Amino acid sequence: MSTQQRSFFFNVDWLTVFLYLILCTIGWFNIHAAVYDPNHQSIVDVSTNYGKQFIFICVSAVVGIVILLLESRFIAALAPAFYVVIVLLLILVLIIGRNVGGNQAWINLGGGFRLQPSEFAKFATCLLLARYLSGTNIRVTEPKSFLMAAAIIGFPMLLIMLQPDTGSTLVFCSLIFVLYREGLSPYFLIIAGLFITLFVTSLLYNPLYIILILVAITAFIIFLFKRNRQLIKTMLIGLAICIAFIFSVKFIYTHVLKKHQTERINILLGITTDLRGKGYNVNQSKIAIGSGKLWGKGYLHGTQTQYSFVPEQSTDFIFCTVGEEWGFAGSLTVISLFMFLILRVILIAERQRSPFTRVYGYGVASVLFFHVVINIGMTIGVVPVIGIPLPFISYGGSSLISFTMLLFTLIKLDSNRKSNV
Amino acid sequence: MNKFFERRYVVTGIFIAIILALLGRLYYIQIVDDRYTIYANSNVRRTTILYPARGPILDRNGKILVQNEPIYDVMVNPKEVKPFDTLLLCKMIGIDKEGFDKRFTKAQRQSPTKASIFEKQLSVELYAALQEKLFEFPGFSIVPRTIRTYPDSVAAQFLGFIGEVTDRDIKRSNGYYRLGDYIGVTGVEKAYENVLRGQRGVQIQMVDSHGVFKGSFANGALDTVPRSGERLTSSLDIDLQRLGEKLMQNKLGSIVAIEPSSGEILCYVSSPTYDPNLMVGRERGNNLAKMYNNPYKPFFIRPIQAQYPPGSSFKPLSALIALQEGIISPSETFYCTGNYRVGNRIVHCNHGEAHGTVNMAKAVAESCNGYFTMVFQRIVDRYGVKNTTANFTAWRNNVMKFGLGARLDLDMPAESRGNVPTPLHYDNTYHKGAWRSSTIAALAIGQGELLATPLQLANLECTIANRGFFYKPHLVKAIGTQNVIKKEYIQKNYVGIDSGYFEPVINGMEAVVESGTARRSKIPDIIMCGKTGTAQNPHGEDHSVFVAFAPRDNPKIAIAVVVENSGEGAHWAAPIASFIVEKYLKGKITPRESGFTVDYFANANRLPDLSLYAQDLQKERRRDSIRAAKVDSIKRFKADSIKKFKADSIKKERQEAAYNNKPANWIKSLTGGRSKS
Question: What CATH number matches the domain at B47-233, 3.10.150.10, 3.90.1310.10, 1.10.287.130, 3.90.1210.10?
Answer without folding.
Answer: 3.90.1310.10
